[in-house]
Amino acid sequence: MEKGVKRISISLPSEVYRELDNLVKARGFTNRSQAVSEMINASLIEHYKQRGTEMMAGTITLFYDESKPNLLQQLASIERDYIDEVISSQHILLEEEHTMEVLLVQGPARRLKMIADKLITCKGVKSGRLVMMSLLLPPIHPFPDKVKK
Predict the structure, then answer these.
(1) pTM greater than 0.70
(2) How far is it, in rounded angstroms, from Cα 89 to Cα 84?
(3) Pick the CATH number of 55-133 from 3.30.70.1150, 3.40.50.2000, 3.40.50.300, 3.30.1220.10
């Protein structure tokens, strides 16, 4: 993979240029290039998600009412069914028997979306969201062909 910075030039309508400067200030970017780079990265991630075959890493964040009958068992069952993609999870106890669960996931984008949809649509889940990135976690264990003998 080629490293370094490449320079491009773009032309923007005056109003878009002003709005870009406002965005840079409001979000605390150090310059326009940093803001544009972040926007391009976000667009690429959306593109990869649509293709569905790209390997992605991400999080699935769920907010749910743990008092709902069988909900915890249903969520755990789904997570076990996709043990290759679900790397870890963390449960944070909230008020009034509610829980926030954050799952670290990695796999093909389409599969991660399917897993998130299965979890989010369980009765008792108040809301959920999948966030993905094209950068991957390093392998936890080496691939079999790279194992030292």
Answers:
(1) no
(2) 13
(3) 3.30.70.1150
